[in-house]
Amino acid sequence: MAQGEPASHRRLFERVLSVRNRAPADESLRVALTCEALLSETSEVSGLRLATEILHAYGTLDDAARDTFFDLLLTRFSPDRNAIASAVAAYSRDPGPAQLVDLRAAVESPRQELFRRLNMAPGGTRALVAMRRQLLRTIGDHPQRLAIDADLSHLFRSWFNRGFLVLQRIDWRTSALVLERLIRYEAVHQIQGWHDLRRRLEADRRCYAFFHPALPDEPLIFIEVALTADMPERVWPLLDPDSEVVDPSHARCAVFYSITNCQDGLRGVSFGNFLIKQVVQDLGNEFPRVRTFATLSPVPEFRKWLEHVINAGTEQRPSAQFAALLATTDVSALADDGITPELRNEITRLCAWYLLCAKENGEPLDPVARFHLANGASLERLNWMGDPSPQGMRRSLGIMVNYVYRIADVERHHEAYAREHRVIASHQFERLAKRSSGTVKFRISED
Amino acid sequence: MAQGEPASHRRLFERVLSVRNRAPADESLRVALTCEALLSETSEVSGLRLATEILHAYGTLDDAARDTFFDLLLTRFSPDRNAIASAVAAYSRDPGPAQLVDLRAAVESPRQELFRRLNMAPGGTRALVAMRRQLLRTIGDHPQRLAIDADLSHLFRSWFNRGFLVLQRIDWRTSALVLERLIRYEAVHQIQGWHDLRRRLEADRRCYAFFHPALPDEPLIFIEVALTADMPERVWPLLDPDSEVVDPSHARCAVFYSITNCQDGLRGVSFGNFLIKQVVQDLGNEFPRVRTFATLSPVPEFRKWLEHVINAGTEQRPSAQFAALLATTDVSALADDGITPELRNEITRLCAWYLLCAKENGEPLDPVARFHLANGASLERLNWMGDPSPQGMRRSLGIMVNYVYRIADVERHHEAYAREHRVIASHQFERLAKRSSGTVKFRISED
Amino acid sequence: MAQGEPASHRRLFERVLSVRNRAPADESLRVALTCEALLSETSEVSGLRLATEILHAYGTLDDAARDTFFDLLLTRFSPDRNAIASAVAAYSRDPGPAQLVDLRAAVESPRQELFRRLNMAPGGTRALVAMRRQLLRTIGDHPQRLAIDADLSHLFRSWFNRGFLVLQRIDWRTSALVLERLIRYEAVHQIQGWHDLRRRLEADRRCYAFFHPALPDEPLIFIEVALTADMPERVWPLLDPDSEVVDPSHARCAVFYSITNCQDGLRGVSFGNFLIKQVVQDLGNEFPRVRTFATLSPVPEFRKWLEHVINAGTEQRPSAQFAALLATTDVSALADDGITPELRNEITRLCAWYLLCAKENGEPLDPVARFHLANGASLERLNWMGDPSPQGMRRSLGIMVNYVYRIADVERHHEAYAREHRVIASHQFERLAKRSSGTVKFRISED
Amino acid sequence: MAQGEPASHRRLFERVLSVRNRAPADESLRVALTCEALLSETSEVSGLRLATEILHAYGTLDDAARDTFFDLLLTRFSPDRNAIASAVAAYSRDPGPAQLVDLRAAVESPRQELFRRLNMAPGGTRALVAMRRQLLRTIGDHPQRLAIDADLSHLFRSWFNRGFLVLQRIDWRTSALVLERLIRYEAVHQIQGWHDLRRRLEADRRCYAFFHPALPDEPLIFIEVALTADMPERVWPLLDPDSEVVDPSHARCAVFYSITNCQDGLRGVSFGNFLIKQVVQDLGNEFPRVRTFATLSPVPEFRKWLEHVINAGTEQRPSAQFAALLATTDVSALADDGITPELRNEITRLCAWYLLCAKENGEPLDPVARFHLANGASLERLNWMGDPSPQGMRRSLGIMVNYVYRIADVERHHEAYAREHRVIASHQFERLAKRSSGTVKFRISED
């Protein structure tokens, strides 16, 4: 801990005290001044007390006061430009190791040390994750706050390192406190209360989550798995809370049907690929007869892409009939039996083409595809009306896709994707996409 | 994770493979090249595999190979001087936020990201702490490796933040795995096997340790406490494994008679003050009748100081009789009853003066005094022949000191010490020191 | 384990095997024969296998087959009358210790040993508790099965001894498996789903349950406590799932508002008094400022008693007006504001008289009163319209009573009740009851 | 709980009080009178208080007072002879179910209810187990106390039913409290302190124990297993605390080299067969490549038998040379290399004969043989000088035996033993024994 210069320390302390007696409007200033006191505190025990005080006070700030506080974090806790300037000058004159140490110290944001010290307080990690969540909400209007976010994000990547995470199986023996959070967080296929959740934790299901020891009872990410006889085409039978529970020992397939990042405050700190890898391994040990590890995933940006290409005048674009249908907000007619085979063929072909060939900077446009393909999965099968729920229709036109994780191939597929962005797909899938390809190889990303 | 440039990635990979087939003499180079592959890896899952591989291989290196590896960490994973130079130049031209970001990235040591990635592997944290322990042993001969240490130390300060530590009470119900480590680690008063340890965990004793979730069963620091009727003068009755166990509910005093940092690899990451604070609090709750929280501490550098001042020609120096005695390596004669009251008075006066007045840069010379006084304790009592063990005689001439933690005063005392390095002592202690003071105020630190 | 005579053992085994191949109609006979094999088995390991087999087969019996099995338990596993007769004769001739041992062995029901052996199987205890639950349902029609019940009940009293029970606090961190059972079991004030349960486990509430180690996750009895400022008159504010949570540190009163025995199969094995005693102690330690430990209890047999005395021609009987009201099944009119003060006075007086003076065999008629008074509580206050819910009106005419547990008096009150069935009540309560008393001391129990 | 007759209850209470004030010589009477109060107590909560008081007072009794207390248990808490007589008379007149209930009640020892009530107190089970341990020590001199033992033993068989036991793996992560007890209890091959114990818990060993939930940290029985490449002939390499730890994944054999019943107070309540069965199952799951489950067991009564048959004039008796050697107390000469092959052959043949053919009531004379053979093991191999330790030589003449548990055969072997006391042995073993058999089939049991 840096040695505080006694005299200035005393002055600061007096300033804090005087501010403490002012009107509540100054609350955020008071918090910021206590933060300064914390940064110059030489005793870790006193620092702990100050940190506790700050987090408590921060928790009581309203939106406006928090806004002011974020501004103060920028104005008072950013690196000192003069200090940087002289460190830069010194290094330019003589680029030795001592100068480098000074330069590094000068450019490091004092906020990082501030956040590390705040973390010492009981509940510190939780409070900082919440602070970033609140900060991120304001960043659209205050892009300069990205500098604050960079500091928090840097720390979180270090603190939430895979080496510190704990994988836990979630089942009906798990505490209600955790289960209630699953209900609240689930983002892919909403959990309709406790009855629904209970079904998702029965003997033919598995649910795993990553936890961090400093955030007990707080899942960071969780995945829901169904153990089935075959690789399923449709998601709603898996979501039916009254479906029959089957004997998992007969299962040949493990379906990852939902994966949810729980903490907005940890956005950008990735857990998903570790989670899938670990779960594939654990399930493989528990169920040696399970051979297929597959997802049942949406194609969440398919419709957006279609609407984009309608006007792009390229070959890969919807027919007039399809375009007319897309023009109506409600595409639920697609789910009807009355739809012509031609239209259905057209849509599935377009979707296969979208997943395999529509790219940006060499990578698939679709975010779900990017995630699984980069993880080493392959595109296996396209399922017509796999999810005819309103959300499924609105975003994916009801289509769902199975990505498959083959243990023996995952690493090789990942390498191929990492080096050349090569997308691995089944023959069936490639044939489907090819039928859609015209003579001109169109790439949306080349616009 | 930064996007690896595919082509160079491939070349690197081929280099790694070719190295893999070479002679075992190249083992450390192979490890270093795999480290480069890990740094440029874009898949976290593949990164995890590489990290596991590296830590395994590192674990098999002999001393010589490890030495080579540390050199490679310096030559291959230090910041790029050219990159720094151009970032410095860019910032000098236009000190905007984007230039600052680039500058910060340029000065950060790639080792930090390397260590973060290594930490992802199972047992990663443990392996990195061991790596730093091994590194520190070589630093005397290789001061340039301080740069590596700075990176590890920076990460450990962040990872072993107080907010991530867990306080645990240690008793006879604790696992043998942990207890065995206490026996091995105890540095102040050696534990003579299981029988001795058992006595230190009886009903009239308390033992607490900090743990980190990523290092299960591995104490970071522990403290041993005796619950006694009065503040004790001598340490050996506390250390007697066959002493009678007393009813702790009658205790009025809690004596901290040993505090040990367990992990050489975490040197400089301080836990002690948090531990004492927490333990004082917990004991206060458990035993409301305990009023005195005191240490029974050695004066580990007293004799060294005496030998230093013998020749310094200052007023505070040993008498001829005492100097003659100090000249003999073995000072055990002091423990005899035959020693004259004059000599005893002289020694205790000198010791009191040493603790209160001998300073360097305004702080007490004695490291134990510095630790407790900075924590807010006060110097209470000096105990003649408190520890006549060979080690106690050799370092402290058998003297022990009680530092006292008074809950109501701790913060104020700490402030006084932090601002002005004011040392708080009992009247008795001050009087003792004064009798030793001549007219000229001598300060060892003013030499 | 008694030594089986090899030859008969073999014959039995063959009989079992032959039965195994018969039609499913013989399933209950097959189970009974396997029970005989179990009783004569000399190897504990083989016995364990048989026990497992029996419990599995028993679990698949339908109602009719179970009925047959209970009959077989009577006919095949009751003490042997001839053996008793000769043991009785032998003892009559020579009442020595050996004869006593033989006599005791002859009268002990072989079912007890059978049940002890069944208990060895995994899940044995759970299965036997379920068996008794099923048995008890049939006892009305088959009073001779009380002999089977006596055996199970004897074992359960021994196995569910207080010394083997574990008290656990239930809160929102408890597993969903246990919480779901609370919802299902709660008998006093139904829990309306998870939202309701969550409120009952907030910071100003406490819930405790007894568990037995052989029945993990299975509460035997649980009690719900509200921490309040004052002793409450009405129950519905406590039951409102949307009521505000108050700071428990301000509480002065702990209200036991619900206590539920969960296991029909453990009927007659009492846990309630231990639970209340323990909870009073634990709460007293956690909240030293809580001075009043009170119940808010129904008067469940008040209305039944009223209907009984209407025609009894005694002094303590409803007025004509009240009698008319009681004659209508729906007494919800009582909850209206329009009810005359006279009628209200009459009802409360009668209720006080009922609780204090209506007795049978010297003990209060009301079962809730008997339970709490025998535990050492006293009758404190009668609350008009404490529970105007349909069930509250139907049984208690909406009246609720506070019984109070005063730590200092509990033992003395219990003694007074145990020796002389003296009922301790507040002055207010006694005055209320007295106004109801006519000149002739009527006791319902004296009819 | 039976309703106490108030008046007599009061008199009893007064008697207890008056006794309380007498001299300490009456302490055991005071305890006994409090026991009477406990038996007639109608409140379970007051009962709990009395039980706690009794156990505390019992714990302070010295040997003499405890002796008096055991006598009081006989005189004051045995069944009432007059009550039995009239119940017997009533049953003789009319053997109906009501009379049977009365007869059963009359013959049951009041001590059983007393012990059940004592068990309710905290630590009750532990105290009762200790009481039986102390009782058993006195039974040789007081055979009439077998009646007390019968009551305790009956309860313990019920309470320590297999269904209530918990199997736990013991390793170096187990609490020191438990491990210290293993060191103290180990009866087969003494554990020489913590260093020795640690070796027995390394990666190539397994240790399991049964616990009862009411006796936490108190092992009831434990077994030590070594994972080895082959079935071992000698025990000392397994006991060498400095032997090398081998990789357990290569093991083909699991050797049970020690099994210890820990609680003298639970003598006669058998756990061993369940333990072995469970451990064979668990090890089979953990190490699928382990095919052989074998013991390495002493032949503890071999030498005693030899000394017995020397004078019996039968064919199976030691040669003159051997008899001379046996006559010397110290048989350590056998362990020398100088011993003639003839003598060695004679001894091994006699030992094989002893194990296979020396019987009493149809069962093997050797208690270890009886235990394993009844469990379904078979006699596999006899190992010359398997245990040349002083105890091994003194009892087994250094011979050790491998009994083998073959999962597929265990049940069949057990049946054969249970029905006909057939002893299953390897061909090698039978041949060895046969060479020892003369023409006249001698059975020690036929004397």
Mean pLDDT of chain A: 88
Rough shape of chain A?
globular
What oligomeric state do these chains adopt? homotetramer
Radius of gyration of chain A: 27 Å
* Main structural class of chain A: alpha+beta
The count of helical stretches of chain A stands at 20
N-to-C span of chain A? 54 Å
Q: Helix proportion of residues of chain A, in percent?
A: 40-55%
Q: Which residue ranges of chain A are poorly predicted, with pLDDT under 50 across at least 5 consecutive positions?
A: 1-7, 438-447
* Biggest interface between chains: C-D, 63 and 62 residues
Beta-strand fraction estimate of chain A: 5-15%
Describe the largest sheet of chain A. 8 strands, mixed
SSE string of chain A: HHHHHHHHHEHHEEHEHEEHHHEEHEHEHH
- Give the beta-strand count of chain A: 10
Describe the structure.
The structure is a homotetramer of 447-residue chains. Chain A is an alpha+beta fold and 447 residues long. Helices cover 51% and strands 11% of the residues of chain A. The first copy, chain A, contains 20 helices and 10 strands. Chain A has helices at residues 6-20, 27-40, 44-60, 63-76, 81-93, 97-107, 110-118, 124-139, 146-159, 176-185, 193-200, 236-239, 272-286, 302-310, 320-327, 341-357, 367-374, 390-396, 410-420, 427-436; strands at 166-169, 205-211, 221-228, 253-261, 292-295, 297-298, 359-360, 363-364, 378-383, 400-405. In chain A, the strands form 2 sheets. In chain A, strands 1, 2, 3, 4, 5, 6, 9 and 10 form an 8-stranded mixed beta sheet that branches. In chain A, α13 (272-286) links the parallel β4 and β5 (292-295). The radius of gyration of chain A is 27 Å and the shape is globular. Chains in contact: A-B, A-C, B-D, C-D.
